[in-house]
């Protein structure tokens, strides 16, 4: 037993060393972001002589980080809300209305899971440009919603099929309309799926760089990753500024991670298993 | 499955008078609730993908609506284009390294952090943290670490190994591996979490039985844990194949595709050819190539999985 204990302690120690290595990028992120500019070109491993927060003020002002933060919130919030509303309603219809059409319709959503998004990107861009949706929040949100719809409908559908009808029937007997039944009875029961979809889609939309780069570049509506990208383009070697911008862009996700860690991990491991 | 399926009146509109039927069908949601989701999926997922496959065979410039059918010209140009060929090969190399290394590291972490260790939850948090971070933003941190006057070379100096110093991101050989390191750092935590969920699904009695039979930890892993983990491992591999083939953010942040196009992937090429150079027809041909590659990889993996299951 004692030998086993020693071995476990050794293993734990080894893993902590690895964890430290894993954290190296974050350690440098913080250290460099508070380094005074005149010390940047000294030794890379030296600690700053004083904590200089002017880089944060500079990044915030010149990188338009406040505006980018707002854009990220609007895009992610709008996309997730739209996604939840459209997918839960669609899955509810598919799960409860059984007719000859519902099978093929469900299949349509499920096959949508494997249609590669890359293939439709350029035509979508072109159509969006014709109808004025490029460079707008609406276009970005529509795109995100449609990209995530197949998975969300699939997850909601599976959950609804296992859910009994009793509550809905009880609400019906009490005189509730379908809309009331859905809002006050069914949707609250769907909470586990709603959580998974919101967390998974929300996190990936928040961090998405490619789509907003294509659809929002050159506007003042770019979300955090694109704002950081263009900011780095301007301040390439002023690493304290770059890292201040990166830190600002990571703080919301990090805060969310600390608060909702358990649900987040469950969302990621549960969502991908389908 | 449900009581509804066996009801004969499910497709009929509610009729007044037939009271039980009325009660059963009127609590059903109206069909039109499905419509917004259906339209979006049909237009943006299916319609755009079909259009994309069509434009790949035209000389479309993205500005005018007119596009002339040019047959296989784009694909021929693509295979003749040194840069596109290089991007195709690099994409596959990235994907292979990504799939193998993230799942390997993820598997080791998952097995070690499954039970027993006191601080396992804290350790899991550390390894998972990069997954939820913006890939673009974290890649810039790595660009600094890999910089010639950055910490990595600084550490090599300290260790008295200045001979190993490199211009990591500007070196045709090392820039590829630099991107791989960043990818593995970012995504091993995701593989770990998926595999942990799989490990928790393995009944403890099975492993205890193996212990009683005198199996060593190593034998237990190969003989009991790993075979039972194969379905979860498959999920994780499938997921990483898809993201491994579509690597974009890290390349754009770390190397921009250089040096000399050695880290250029199909995804970065689609972006550059289309939105930087305005070659929309050619860009869609590249996108089609990427889509076919992903589809082939997914199908091949499914087939391999089926064959493995049959052999068990």
Layout of secondary structure:
The complex is a heterodimer of chains A (274) and B (312).
Chain A: H1 2-33, H2 54-62, H3 65-96, H4 102-112, H5 117-130, H6 137-162, H7 166-173, H8 178-189, H9 191-207, H10 210-216, H11 224-234, H12 239-259, H13 261-273
Helix pairs in contact in A: 1-12, 2-12, 3-6, 3-9, 3-11, 4-6, 6-9, 7-8, 9-13, 11-12
Chain B: H1 19-26, H2 35-55, H3 73-80, H4 82-112, H5 120-128, H6 135-146, H7 151-158, H8 174-200, H9 204-212, H10 217-245, H11 249-254, H12 266-276, H13 280-311
Helix pairs in contact in B: 3-13, 4-8, 4-10, 8-10, 9-10, 10-13, 12-13
Total number of beta strands of chain B: 0
Number of strands of chain A: 0
Distance between the termini of chain B: 31 Å
Distance between the termini of chain A: 41 Å
Looking at CATH, which topology of the largest domain in chain B would you report?
A: MetI-like fold
The averaged pLDDT of chain A comes out at 88
Number of domains of chain B: 2
CATH class of the largest domain in chain B: Mainly Alpha
CATH superfamily of the largest domain in chain B: MetI-like
Could you explain the architecture of this structure?
The complex is a heterodimer of chains A (274) and B (312). By secondary structure, chain A is mostly helical. Chain A has one domain: MetI-like fold. Chain A is 78% helix and 0% strand. Chain A has helices at 2-33, 54-62, 65-96, 102-112, 117-130, 137-162, 166-173, 178-189, 191-207, 210-216, 224-234, 239-259, 261-273. In chain A, helix 2 (54-62) packs across helix 12 (239-259), helix 6 packs antiparallel against helix 9 and helix 7 runs antiparallel to helix 8 (178-189). Chain A is globular and about 75 Å long. Chain A starts with a helix and ends with a helix. The relative contact order of chain A is 0.14. The mean pLDDT of chain A is 88. With 312 residues, chain B is an all-alpha fold. Chain B folds into two domains: 1-41, no CATH class; 73-146 and 172-311, MetI-like (MetI-like fold), CATH 1.10.3720. Chain B is 68% helix and 0% strand. The two termini of chain B are 31 Å apart.
